[in-house]
Each structure stands twice: as structure tokens, then as C-alpha cells.
Amino acid sequence: MSELTDTMKPAIARGMRLQWEPAQEAHVLLYPEGMVKLNGSAGAILSRCDGVRTLADIVADLERAYATSGLAEDVRAFVTMALEKRWLELRA
Amino acid sequence: MTAPAAPVSRAARGASPQVGPPLWLLLELTYRCPLHCVFCYNPTEFARTGAELPTAEWIRVLREARALGAVQLGLSGGEPLEREDLEIIVAEAHALGYYINLITSGVGLTEARCAALKTAGLDHIQLSFQDSTRELNDFLSSTRTFELKAKVAALIRAHDYPMVLNVVLHRLNIDHVGEILEMAERLGAQYVELANTQYYGWAWLNRQQLLPSRAQVARAEAVTQRFRERVAGKIQVYFVVPDYFERRPKACMGGLGSVFLGIAPDGTALPCHAARMLPNLELPSVLSADLRAIWYDSEAFNRFRGEAWMKEPCRSCPERVQDFGGCRCQAYLMTGDATNTDPVCDLSPHHHLVTDAVARADCAATATAPREHVLVFRDHRTSIAVVPGEPADVGGPGARGT
């Protein structure tokens, strides 16, 4: 996979679905024959991966939402991992 | 060590917070099936069970289960496409927020139904094949369905469903794993599930014919691994190891009553697919109780929760928290007592029942004489006649409860 850059637009991969589950009080990622229960930060990142926002937009939005800064590296590391796991794919 | 609790007190404890929701709901919509597979896990006495639930009851089950937290939904059977209301059930499930998987032989999946199911909100399709060759596919299912399945695979792809191709492996097809994987790639599957036969239902009747040899399993695993490396990033391949070849049992269902809730065609609620065979387990019906009571309070769903039911060697074993003693149905089928340690475990005093079966399979692999047992195909007439849980081929003691 080529290097993940700030202008790339991650989206939930086709065939996967992200949704909030009240019974589990968590975002879950659903896919054929499986389910991943996400922790709070993973849910916050993935719920912003809509194929429209760039990686830079997502970082900025998270920093605003959590009134913090310096999240870029953590978000990039998570998105890279999620791409490898094929939870996410990149949209043009 | 705690003393075994009475069933009543365990049932009362069932509503406690440590029992999580039934995240995985499987609706076996019908036992009707155009195929007659020799390895089917459906109960051998399926033809003697009650009438199928009507649409309205299935919809009530979907609503109640969703309210409890169910989210992964499998629609299975039999062949679920035999139900003419499948599209209605899918649409309701989609509206409720389920992730919906159709588990099908492909028979009955026309272009029109494929499109209608997509519109209704079906998320993915698991298509079964019996083999990479027409001859064996058609023989094992006792139908002429090979070409039809290939057409259905193309339809699934054309309608943009993620496709899981499922092949149940056993002695008669496991040597074709390389060809099966190439077929899956050609058909455009994103996921391939090579599921070694689990010996329940019809597969139990046919165990001696279906259990592969150790050498066959090792070869198949090696071929699968090479394929995995070649298609990495394109196709996910699951190889479900046949537990007879392991030294520790599978964590069956993640523990009974932990995440899985199955509903049989007649509304019987099942803590595992095969639970109908377990003796003295009064399975509740959705026709006489709501799902919350069934999941949290019924004796059947509480019986094997926790550890109070366990015997030695499980009871004092540090691994009991990982494998929950293995499979209750396998323990019952092989030892006659559902509370025994799964004999797959090499700590079980009954482990020889498994190793003996494997030794016979290894022996048969090298024998030149024709095998004497015939395959029993899953069909209505045989189902009427067969004795539930009767082992077809176990020579040793303890196979049928005394």
C-alpha cells in the first residue's frame, strides 16, 4: 500500500457496516460472519471516515470535538491499521 | 470450588448482568431443502418436528431479539429461499438494523429474487458448494446443481453482494482443496470458508465415510496456506480445522448461552445449532415465551452457563475459561453424557473415542478394499425412519448413552 497522505479520503470498506449499538454501548463494525466491538476512540475515528472527509479533515474534526491537539499521528496509525484490516478503503 | 447449583438458582441468576446479549441470531427458516447433503448438521429427525413459523412470528422474533441487542443475523435452513416471504423477513430485519447474511445453496436464487433481496436490504450471501467438480458436487448433494451454483455466483457478484463461498470439507473432497480455491477465485468470492465437517446430525451418521485422514488434513492445510499467500489482500480464506485432529476442544459457541441464539423452523429456541439432540434439555419455544425470558431465564439457556455444570477434568482445569469444556453435543454424542469434557480434549478420559475414529480414518485411507458403509443422504423419508442421535459407525463403548 502506498503511503497514507493527508488528502486521502478513507471510507468504511464495501460490505462492512459501522453502527452504534445501544445494547453494547459501543460502535460496532459488522461484516460477513463477524463483528468488531470498537473502543471509544476507534468508534470516533471510524464514524468520521465517510469517503468525503480527508484524513486532515478527520484529524481537525476530532481535535475540535475533543478540544485537544496533536492527534494526527495516532489517527494516522489507526487508519493505517484499519486499511490493512480492510475495515477501511480509500476513495478518490 | 463451588458446589453445583440447582437448576432453579442458576436460572434465577440468569438475569444477572454478566449474561450478555444474544449478539448472533440465526433463524433456520425452514428444514425444506432441495439438496440432500450427507454432511448436513440439521437434526436427523427434522421431518418429525413441528410446523414452520408463519411470517408474523418470524417478524416478532426479529423485533424481540433486536431489542435484546442481536445484530448479526443469519438466515438459514434447510434452504431459506424455499420461504416465499424471505424478502419480507429481510426487509423487516434491515429496517431493524441487523447485518443480514443469507446462507444458501443458491437453488432458487433467480435474478429477480437476487435483486429484490438487495432492495430489501440483504447485506451478504454465503453460497455453498460441495466440490470443485460437477461429479462430486452433484453426488454429495444428490442433485444436479453444479452449473446452477456457478450461475448464482455470477448473479451475486453482478448485484454487488460480498460473497462468501463455503465448502464443507471431508474425506471425499478434501484432496480437491487446491481446485476448490481456484474455483472460488474464478467465481469472484471475497471470502472462502473451508469448513471441515463437524460431526452432528447427518454428518454423524456418515462419520466413517466422511472423516479424513491426518495426512489429508495436513496436505489441505499446506495447499490452503500457499493459496493464502498468493491472494493476500484479495481473498480472505478461513480454514476451519476439524476438531478431531486437535488436542484441545473448540470454544463451542463461545460457551452455550453466551452470544448465540438459534431459532428452529418450528420456533424452538436453540443455544447451539445441534442442541435439539441434548437429552433432558427442555428447549423453550418462541410460541410460548418471549425471547427475553427465553434468553435470560429459561433453564435450557442457563444449564451450561458458567462452570457449575462442569465435571473433572474441566472443573479444575485452568483452560476452562478459554474453551468452556468444548462442545456439549459432541460430549453427549460420543460419551452419552452432555456434562462430560468434550472427548476432543486429550485430558478427557474418553479421548480415545476420537483418536480411535481418526486411526480408523487413517487406516481406511491406505486400505484398498472397498468400504462397507454406505452414505446416508439427508431426505424426508430417511428422517422419518432414523433414530435421533444414533451413531452409525462407532465401534467402541460409550457411544450411545446407557
- Give the proportion of residues in helices of chain A: 25-40%
**In percent, how much strand structure appears in the residues of chain A?**
25-35%
Name the helicity range of chain B: 25-40%
CA distance, first residue to last residue of chain B = 29 Å
Going across the major beta sheet of chain A, what is the strand order? 2-3-4
- Give me the Rg of chain A, rounded: 13 Å
Mean pLDDT of chain A: 92
**Biggest β-sheet description of chain B:** 9 strands, mixed
Total number of beta strands of chain A: 5
User: What is the chains' assembly state?
Assistant: heterodimer
Question: What fraction of the residues of chain B are assigned to beta strands by DSSP?
Answer: 5-15%
Q: Give the class of chain A from helix and strand content and strand pairing.
A: alpha+beta
Overall residue-averaged pLDDT value of chain B: 86
Low-confidence runs of chain A: none
Given as residue ranges, the uncertain stretches of chain B (5+ residues, pLDDT < 50) are 1-17, 391-402
Count of alpha/pi helices of chain B = 16
Biggest chain pair interface:
A-B, 16 and 19 residues
Number of β-strand runs of chain B: 9
Largest sheet composition of chain A: 3 strands, antiparallel
- The DSSP helix count of chain A reads 3
Write the H/E string of chain A, N to C: EEEEHHHE
